[in-house]
Amino acid sequence: MIKHLPSRQIILRGAHNVRDLGGYVTAQGGTVPWRRFLRGDCLHRLDEGEPERLHFEGLRMVVDLRTAREVQEAPSRLDRMRGVEWVNLPLFDALSPSALAEVDVPEGHPLLAMYVTAIETRGEAIAGILDRIAKVREGAVLFNCTAGKDRTGIIAALLLGLAGVSHTDIIADYAMTETLIPELVAEFLSRSRARGGDVEAYATLLESPASAMAGLLGHLDTKYGSVMGYFDHIDIPTETLSRLQVRMGVTG
Question: Which helix (H) or strand (E) is 222 found in, with range?
Answer without folding.
Answer: helix 210-224
